[in-house]
Amino acid sequence: MPEPAFETVIGLEVHAQLKTRSKAFCACPVTFGAPPNTAVCPVCLGYPGSLPVANREMVTLAMRVALAAGCTIQPRSVFERKNYFYPDLPKGYQISQYELPLATGGGVEVETDAGVRRTVRLNRIHLEEDAGKSMHEFPWEDVPTDSSLVDLNRTGTPLIEIVTEPDLASPGEAFDYLLRVRRLVRWVDASDGNMEEGSLRCDANISLRPCGTAALGTKVEIKNLNSIAHVKKALEHEIARQAAALSSGGTVIQETRLFDPATGATKTMRTKEEAMDYRYFPDPDLGTLAVDAAWVAEVKASIPEMPEARAARFASQYALPVSDAELLCSARPLADWFEAAVRAHASNPKAIANWLLSDLLGRMSDADRQAGRVPVPPESLAALVALIDGGTISGKIAKEILPDMIATGKAPSDLVKEKGLVQISDEGALNEAVSKVIADNPAQAAAYRGGKAATFGWFVGQVMKATGGKAAPQLVNRLLKEELEKGA
Length: 488
Ligand code: ADP
Ligand code: ZN
Ligand code: MG
Fold this sequence. Notes:
This protein is an alpha+beta fold. The chain contains 16 helices and 16 strands. Helix content is 39%, strand content 19%. The radius of gyration is 31 Å and the shape is elongated. The model has no long low-confidence stretch (mean pLDDT 93).
């Protein structure tokens, strides 16, 4: 395959809705799915004379994300008005930050397509408020179908915008970055991070340049990306489109494009020539946002052990493969579940990890994994592993019990008793079964004694069958060996 002529440069702007109870600059509740225009007040409706007051919790949550990403918190940042007209923006401007954002610098570690860890630099994280929602489809029969309605419940909801430097080199890296940013905002409890519900939104900027050159090419911004998979698809499409234009001697026009999930293609939304002049200026109603060192220190102290560090600790403290440790840390509730189980049965973390990753994760949806909704409580899995480790049941019986634990919510020890599944480790009882199997199968016994060692496994299976799988495996092995050798 010939070397590609162009290399890809991508920068992402991610909006994350912050999990505050009230809006960014008024006391209205932040709701999702409430009846339209019921969570509004003069401030978020932009009535003249109403005054915004910045929500302290919003700033705290933004700082949690920023500090976790290694950003510098600016002691002074400024809220500005970003002016434009739109029906879902009653004030005629959005309160945002521009010249002086809350946080600058920092980075997010990603994995390249070749599996190498690399840091994507952040340009800044700033605060802003959301706009309302225009509705073009609705369930009300008395409203003409060609109408558009506006729901202003979302107006004034606090957001952070996380802006990268143009550091990403492929759609795959962009995909990985978004997974990690989603994990980051969830990990520090700052945002729900659901792209489908709109609490995480992404605009993707992309340009191509001849391989080996340093100057950035002309970029295109892609909007309307409402899943991480769409971001990847849109970027792939855009690479092909821009490469075709450039290879045939044409140019890329700087513009905003929309992604159409139905076709997998992007199309022009507006070119830079038509782009609005937002005429940013400091909001005279809000003044400077001052964050003192004590506040920063307090937020810093509240940040939990982050996923990269926690995965490294899991790998060393619990002697787990790095890939398993990372899977356990794909969501904080999942990592918490694992450690709760380990606390309940501390002597075998490896077995607990194996059960969680091989037997439980497969039964869970992605949403369940993210939320740590494991179908059994951690103490129950710990109890199951303890029963195996203590020799009460075999691993095979444990696998049979697990579905019942999930279905009934009963403790494994109760299920073992109820079903009479306690492992037979009584030598007398087992010896009887072993002798009988050997007596019933003289041909196989002769074969084994004649040197056909593989027959041994078959005998183990027969004894297991005869005891309903309840025989203690090590004991079966020893007794069988003794009995078979006796007759040799
Ligand atoms: P704008 O002024 O159009 O908003 P910014 O300089 O603020 O552009 O950058 C917005 C985003 O686009 C950032 O994530 C940045 O890294 C990215 N970006 C800027 N220039 C390019 C480029 N030439 N190619 C790809 N991404 C770019
Ligand atoms: Zn309000
Ligand atoms: Mg910009």
